[in-house]
């Protein structure tokens, strides 16, 4: 569960924005977005009222956050975030696995609202907040450019729930229809089941090859 310093609320007249620092790895989609919804060094850093009646701008910027650290609540009701039609895993160059879709992630607490649709999962093995990324790959100088050798199935039925479970001291077990996008942006793999490396040692990344056993990887 979060403590008082983990989750920050930014109230607006028409929409509230919520930031969960446990999930944030400072990708910068919010701060680099056009407009003044997010301004570094300003107090408050996020001000939903600066966009006036343009609630959709807030929605658009918040939903760009790839880690699920940002979420929103409309004051007047209306549409909430929904899962995209395709479940997707992006293998970031020297970084985490970025998941988007209809997600059910083992290890997510009930108050991590954003990871229902967007999440960044550790694949270097060093994160202190597993299964989520905490940028430890940078300190570790983890290197993997996100090439994907296997192609998987020729076609799949898109959508549906994507379940991610943690094998104790082992890989991420992903079940459901999904696509893997390589670090180059290429749609590389399609399928309904895969074991994805989270120890950082597999020679067949992003897939597990059993290397976690050889290195004595330990994680829930």
From TrEMBL:
Pfam families given in the database record? Fer4_19, zf-CDGSH
The terms under GO molecular function for this entry are:
2 iron, 2 sulfur cluster binding; metal ion binding
The cross-references to Gene3D superfamilies, in alphabetical order and at most eight, read: CDGSH iron-sulfur domain, mitoNEET-type
Domain Iron-binding zinc finger CDGSH type span(s) in chain numbering:
102-143, 182-218
Q: Does the keyword DNA repair apply?
A: no
Domain of life from the UniProt record:
Bacteria
> Could you confirm whether the keyword Transit peptide appears in this record?
no
What keywords are assigned to this protein? 2Fe-2S, Iron, Iron-sulfur, Metal-binding
GO cellular component terms, alphabetically, are:
cytoplasm
Question: Mind telling me which PANTHER family this protein's record contains?
Answer: CDGSH IRON SULFUR DOMAIN PROTEIN HOMOLOG, CDGSH IRON-SULFUR DOMAIN-CONTAINING PROTEIN 3, MITOCHONDRIAL
Protein name as catalogued = Iron-binding zinc finger CDGSH type
